[in-house]
Design a protein that fits this description.
Blueprint lengths: L19 H15 L11 E6 L5 H12 L3 E5 L12 H11 L2 E5 L3 H10 L4 E3 L7 H15 L6 E5 L4 H13 L2 E5 L8 H10 L6 E4 L2 H5 L4 E4 L11 H7 L7 H6 L5 E4 L11 H4 L6 H20 L1
Parallel strand pairs: 1-2, 1-3, 3-4, 5-6, 5-8, 6-7, 8-9
Bound molecules: phosphoric acid mono(formamide)ester (CP) and norvaline.
Length: 308
Amino acid sequence: MLKPSKLSKKNFLSSLDMTTDEFLHLLRLANHFKNKDLNIKYKDKVLGLIFDKSSTRTRVSFQVAMTRLGGTTIDLNPITSQIGRGEPIKDTARVLSRYCDVLAIRTFDHSDLEEYAKWSTKPVINALTDLEHPCQALADFMTIKEEFIDFNNIVLTFIGDGNNVANSLILCGALLGIEVRIACPKGYEPSSLVINKAYEIYKNKNLLKVTNDINDAVSGANVLYTDVWSSMGEEHKKEKKDKDFKDFTINRHLVKEADENAIILHCLPAYRSKEITDEMMESKKSRIFEQAENRMHAQQALLSCILS
Ligand code: CP
Ligand code: NVA
């Protein structure tokens, strides 16, 4: 019988904090949790949530996943805790890790997440930083696997800003050895640090492509994926980004360029008529709400391994 097994790394800060085997194991576990084939309980275990940015899916899916595992969550609002009044991360981390068994943190600078992880004696999970969104990527690849059964010959095209969501997709694509194409306007390419890490893993370096040519990136793709043009914390850049990204919308014309069985993904929240049209959001090709549901199953799998 499939059982959760401890990940080799204490923390899950990056998609690269798992090996390819661990990634595939998490996807299998997630599928078992979804099908109710696994009933694992971690009574009395507590997940602490610290969210410096807004969240619907990540927060609630972590809460429900932990409840389904028999544990509980504490949602620490930075405004009403001392975190918002400037208590140093190293003090907060040392105190909270004496109360909680695992922490999930959403914040801006990835270095702040690393600071929590450094001082916490308990595992820390990245619930999104400006650099990565590895929990999202778990659910994304779970959704892709549900659709296509395996990852052979899959082409994943991400259309949008080369930041957190794109970065985790790139790193997971490298772990799985699948073709990942990133289409973004000039100046919005993923960080070279992430690209270089991915190239170190890819056996076939041609499988990762970053381009400003959206049609070229979409041609024959099996998965079209997009994200908001202006991320949380970029509200002041919205006007400029709306202009810079105006040709990067998933619409019916673009979808016609993809493989005829292509599916559409979006991490949500979505801004209709910006990065995706309402028609494509609601189309038969959309797996966006399955993907959102899978956040919960994937995180249940992740927590079950971390707590095992
Ligand atoms: N996709 C995602 O992380 O959604 P939330 O911001 O609602 O958590
Ligand atoms: N790139 C987006 C993802 C939201 C889940 C953001 O950081 O706001």
